[in-house]
Amino acid sequence: MSAAPESPPRSWAEVDLAALRHNFRAARNLGHQQIMAVVKASAYGHGLEPIANTLDQEDLTFFGVANVGEARRLSEAGIQTPIYLLGGTFPAEREEVVARQWLPCLNTMEEAEHFDQLARARGSIVEAHITVDTGMGRGGFLPSDTPSALIAIRALPGLRVTGIGSHLPCADEDNAFTITQFNSFDTLIESLPEREKLTHVHLANSAGLLGYQSRTTTLARPGLMLYGVSPVTNADISLRPVMALKSRIAVIRDLPSGHGISYGRTFVTTRTTKVGTIGIGYGDGYPRVTTGQNPEIFVRGRRVPLLGRITMDQVMADLTDLPECSPGDEVELFGPNIPVEEVALRAGTIPWEIFTGITPRVERVYKG
Ligand SMILES: *Cc1c(COP(=O)(O)O)cnc(C)c1O
Fold it and tell me: Which end of the chain has fewer surrounding CB within 10 Å, N or C?
């Protein structure tokens, strides 16, 4: 008996690496700053290693990851660009950080002193950045404590402080606060002793890079915009969506008027309706809470509405106006024709969460 043929995937995410390169270069050119590419959470659901391997070939200064598990995957993939940990570490993680020469950000003196001890025990030096809490409330030294912390940390022989960073809580929501935050960050940096030894000064995420200027920063940390989505609506930049979430019509049936569709029968047909059942659901990360918010999909060149509740593995679409559809036809849930921002809005959430919510069942398919 010959080997069974492999069926085409039922739902998949097409990841366009040419679009990724385009967006990276747009970010790189925009602020004339170096770039730390933020690839946490499996590169926002796009797949850590393929995204990192692509960006590793670009004019990139750091990869930013959320935790040591992600850092380890990058190291094991043979990534050449230095790897920066965006958040604080707990004690049991730090030995590996030192041994693998990842760059930690320092949030407390306790963290700094522990890294110093571990580095000296290994006869090495840890390169690190200091984090300043200018309003995020998630980690770092308060601005008023930062000059003295910097002096104290520089006195630790096992550490070399080569940078300083802070984070923006509302660059896409509160312009006035963010302007003040940029100003006070710049003023703080300008006041630091031996400031020229801080090679890397960074504050901006995507929204910060797209909307604000700094007198002191040398590096930006974009995430979302690399994947083709601007967090601000008025950005003067052309980004290309990297991910297209796709599936296929499995079954097409004609239902009479008055027939309920999906759990709860929240939708009942009011005419004879051609209903396509599509092989994707909330088990793939398509948000169930879009139910009732008029979600649409793109099939054969046009938008059609989804009907009734999103189920775990299937959704139903109204194909009455598309008589040419047939089972196996490809549909787009979001991508070049349906912006992910639209799905996020209908789900009452943000594009970051839609991307990172696409589950492992969805095969990532790379092109470009
Ligand atoms: C996630 C993150 C970023 C990237 O944010 P985007 O809004 O996706 O550009 C930058 N800096 C830090 C500290 C982060 O945690």
Answer: N
